[in-house]
Design brief:
This protein has one helix at about 5-10; strands at about 35-40, 45-55, 60-70, 75-90, 90-100, 105-115, 115-120, 125-130, 135, 150, 160-165, 170-175, 175-180, 185-195, 200-205. It has 1 helix and 15 strands. It has one domain (about 5-205).
Length: about 200
């Protein structure tokens, strides 16, 4: 895997003009309160993406852990760990805290919804996005109705999202990714293409 492909993978992750109405987050919370995916590149498993859901389904606290290791033969050449805690209130995005170790490079993001918009802070910047901005954390298809921001880097994404079938959303622009959902709106899979042409895939486990 090239360095540019690894960076692109990080950006994919570890991404409506009206706010979400109460209850919309409910359909996206799995009954088991847990989602686990194997992460694959060109069919080879490189890691795991785990999400757990606590609290009221209309106001969940979502904890994400992503771990990856890319190897050259038996030797690890890249390690990645992403941790995030995402909070919703009344079916609306409320806040996000993330920390990431990308092969030794540490990143932190703090985001919160205010009356004036979504305030996003990193070690080097503080920006205020639209009140309708949401983190591109994939699990809730309702986020595609508004602007998306990268939960690892804290940047507003230059992408467009389009629903191409009842259970599939295509995101294009800075990312080329498709997210898939079941009839209840629960996240089931992800497929994306990196700049080097390799394929990224999430498979439920």
């Amino acid at each position: 895997m090239t360095l540019s492909a690894i960076v692109d993978r990080r950006r994919l992750i570890a991404g409506g003009l009206a706010c979400l109405a109460p209850g919309l987050a409910l359909a996206a919370v799995p009954a088991a309160r847990r989602l686990t995916f194997s992460v694959l590149r060109n069919g080879t498993r490189i890691g795991e993406h785990l999400m757990t859901f606590a609290g009221d389904p209309a106001a969940p606290v979502v904890t994400t852990e992503v771990r990856m290791a890319v190897k050259l033969g038996p030797v690890p050449v890249f390690r990645y760990h992403h941790h995030a805690v995402e909070r919703w209130s009344g079916g609306r995005f409320a806040s996000l805290e993330t920390r990431t170790d990308s092969n030794g490079k540490a990143e932190r993001v703090s985001a919160r919804r205010t009356e004036g918009g979504v305030v996003i802070e990193t070690a080097g910047a503080r920006i205020t996005g639209p009140a309708s901005a949401r983190p591109f954390t994939h699990w809730n298809p309702e986020v595609f109705s508004g602007p998306l921001f990268n939960p690892q880097e804290g940047k507003l994404l230059k992408v467009t999202a389009r629903r191409i079938s009842p259970g599939q959303w295509a995101v294009r622009g800075e990312a080329e990714i498709d997210d898939f959902y079941d009839g209840a709106g629960v996240w089931t899979a992800l497929k994306g293409r990196l700049k080097d042409g390799s394929m990224l895939e999430y498979r439920r486990t």
